[in-house]
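Lines hold sequence, tokenised fold; shown next:
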Amino acid sequence: MVRGLVAGGLCLFAVGLILDSQAGGGEKDKITIKLVMQKCMDKDGPKLCGKVASGKASADEKKQVIEYFTALTKLTPPEGDEEDWKTKTKALLDAAKADDGKALAKAANCAACHSVHKGKKK
């Protein structure tokens, strides 16, 4: 009887872990460089970074930009020096956290980053 209760409890615990991993940490929730570029830095118009830099972003949008840039600082660039990557992404994050539009616009220099870090298409 006790053995059955312990086994049942362990089964419920295992099912809970499986459901939790599927609900909260799936691959679709993973922040990638591509996702950050699409959400924050798109060249075709003011995305989140541009809205924050211009002072037109909501509090939720500012929070989102900080979340994306925090993740970006932890990612590895496809090419180039990793220390340079960390310096550039930290500048983005620091400017976003400080809500400093001028510093953010300066740090969001696409050409400066892409020229050394963007992976080449094969």
In short: The chain has seven helices and no strands. The mean pLDDT is 81.
